[in-house]
Amino acid sequence: MPKPRNPFIYGVPVPPSRFVGRRQEVRTIFNQIAGPALGSVAINGEHRIGRTSLLHYVVDPEIAEGWGVTPDRYILLYLDCQSISGFTPTRFWRRVLGLLPRWPGDEGPSEAIERLLSQEEIACSDLDAVLDGVHENGRKLVLLLDEFEWAIRTDMEEDLATTRDFLSGLRALIGRVPRALSLVVATREPLEALCRPIKFIGSPFHTIFVSLSLKPFTREEAEELIDKYLKGTGVEFSKEDRDFVYKVSKGHPYWLQNACFKLFEKKLELFEQVPGGGGRQ
Amino acid sequence: MMQACNEKDPTKSPYEDVLQSLIEEGAPGTTLVGIPLEEAGPERMARKASPLPQPEVRQKIYNDIKHALREEGLAKEGQRERAKEVLFPKQLLSRIGFAFLFVGVVVGVIAVIMQSFQIFLGAGLLILVGGVFLIITPT
Q1: I want to staple B93 with a disulfide (CB 3.0 to 4.6 A). Which of A208, A221, B36, B137 is the partner?
Q2: What are the structural domain ranges in chain B?
Q3: Exposure b/e, B104-128, CB count within 10 A at least 16 = b
């Protein structure tokens, strides 16, 4: 008889089917993306608070469709900036262009994409042709950029100028007419704090974003998570159990899932210790 | 008037047999600890779901979990948060350090002009305190 699988997940982003809570944040993101202004959102939150899980949830085609963000009108691309080794604007755009769908024949910005990919250096201003093509194709491009701090390099003096130019270029692409680009960026520190060392000539980069700060789960969200995950396992958490896991985790999603995972294991162990209680046969 | 009774054992409730048979058949709503009924065989269905046992066992389990979480970094992160809140900010520490150094140097110059060894010692002390502040300022 198989032992029931522990339903709790920690250490890795939760799949969209297991996503819980963050209703307000999800609503804000989709309101910005699908709104008339095609806004951009900057998400921040401490380590393991669920930034990546939130982005994975938003980029999920089924979830996005539920908010009217359909593939015929939007191109949603998720990119972990950490995965771009030795981050440079050119490498970044190369990854983005590589992820863009290929339009058949002369449709869409296929030609512009191929031309840019063959260039040695790609600057933000080079993306105009691609965004025009996306717009003419009746769509909008939404980039969900995880670990965006990798793009905000301020350690060295020479990095500051490159980062400033890149962020200013990105800002210009978001604000250009016709509107065809929206960003949802996720960082640990607020975007404003990350951009503080950069002296922008015009408007600072962060001011074009709606800022969202991810907080630990409320008690209701934690209860919802426990109920959802325990469903169908045959295991129940008592009120004392729930009080304990919420108190010890303070509602932090990672620690909540971790505590629940361990409690689930303990319950199974206890059950197996009871004579006739389901030891492996 | 007809009254429900347990035919096998009149001392038991008539519903106990029914409940037992429901559990054995895996009826919806009757669960075992850790085993979805769809997966559990009838031979394993004698134990009903139960919360964690006695308070002391439960407390031990909670303590074990808490300990394990701390080993994985829960306390460390908590301490970091506290450290962020409690410690003086970097800028404040360095400013205090430089203030002491500045006053120390000024007093030192006065001591040299006045040729006072005691004032000179005081200046040295101020410079020393300033130096300590600058050393403990996190980089």
Answers
A1: B137
A2: 1-50, 52-87, 88-136
A3: beebbeebeeeeeeebbebbeebbe
Please judge whether A262 and B33 are an interchain contact, meaning their C-beta atoms are less than 8 angstroms apart.
no
A270 inside 8 A of chain B by CB: yes
DSSP track, A59-104: H-HHHHHHTT--TTTEEEEEEEGGGSSS--HHHHHHHHHHHSPPPS
CB contact under 8 A, B52 and A271: no
Cβ contact A236:B35 at 8 Å = no
Query: What DSSP designation does B26 have?
Result: T
With residue A209 as reference, give the H or E element that holds it.
strand A209-213
B23/A58: higher pLDDT: A58
Compare all CA atoms of chain A with the CA of B38 and give the residue at the minimum distance.
A232
Residues 6+ apart with CB under 8 A from A208: A40, A171, A174, A175
The residue length of chain A stands at 281
Q: Which residues of chain B does A234 touch, with a Cβ-Cβ cutoff of 8 Å? A: 31-37, 40, 49
**Does the predicted model carry a pTM greater than 0.90?**
no
Q: Structural domains in chain A?
A: 22-213 (3.40.50.300), 219-273 (no CATH)
pLDDT for position A5: 86
Whether A276 has its CB under 8 Å from any CB of chain B: the answer is yes
- In A, residues 37-56, which contact B (CB 8 Å cutoff)? 47
Is the confidence metric ipTM above 0.90 for this complex?
Answer: no
Q: Rounded to a whole number, what is the distance in Å from the CA of A268 to chain B's nearest CA?
A: 6
- Cβ–Cβ gap B52/A241 under 8 Å: yes
| Range with the largest mean pLDDT of A1-15, A36-50, A147-161 | A36-50
The residue among A231, A269, A271, A273 with the most chain B CBs within 10 A of its CB, best to mutate, is A271
Other Cβ atoms less than 10 A from the Cβ of A71: the count is 12
What is the amino acid identity at position B79?
Answer: Q
**What does the pLDDT look like over B18-47, one tens digit per residue?**
445 544 444 444 444 444 444 444 434 334
Which pLDDT score, from 0 to 100, does residue B116 have?
A: 87
